[in-house]
Amino acid sequence: ADLYALTQEIVAAQGLPAYEISNHARSGAESRHNLTYWRYGEYVGVGPGAHGRFVENGRRVVTIAERMPETWANLVEAKGHGVTGGETLTRSEEADEFLLMGLRLAEGIDLSRYEAFSGRSLSTARLSMLQGEGLVAPIGNARLRATPAGMIVLDAVVADLAR
């Protein structure tokens, strides 16, 4: 934790603030590619070992492609794609993934989007407890973010919120 905090301090002092738990950039130079994942956007995985997440019939679908390049190429030739697995996520799984990915970001999560995924609000009692411990903080009335202390224990923060 000390090395992480020191790294955050040094990189920020060089004009590269953290926009994500382990990524830094000048304003406007953030990785748009990775922001798609962290903002829980949709993407199609193309190529050996690729995975995708997209919405179909109102539910998020996860796809997994064959990992071995030659086997993947044979599947594409035979079936037109190399997808070998996948599933449709439950609302609860979507909400958990949204929390895990979004709270990695300095901008945090949109609370109404969480409610749309989960069908419920975050527990007021858990939010109060985590705020009291200095692990999360509201951004206005519409967003929630992990604090620097919360980023260090983010898996535990997400587990508390997801209950």
Percent of residues in β-strands: 15-25%
Radius of gyration: 18 Å
Structural class: alpha+beta
Task: Give the fraction of residues assigned to helices.
Answer: 40-55%
> What ranges have pLDDT less than 50 throughout 5 or more consecutive residues?
none
CATH second-level architecture of the largest domain: Orthogonal Bundle
User: How many independent structural domains?
Assistant: 3
Average predicted local confidence, pLDDT: 95
Distance between the termini: 26 Å
Q: Which fold name corresponds to the CATH topology of the largest domain?
A: Arc Repressor Mutant, subunit A
Shape by Cα distribution: globular
What series of H and E elements makes up the topology? HEEHEEHEHEHHEEHH
The number of helical segments is 8
**Structure summary, number of beta strands:** 8
Let me know the largest β-sheet. 3 strands, antiparallel
Strands side by side in the biggest sheet? 3-4-5
**CATH class category label of the largest domain:** Mainly Alpha
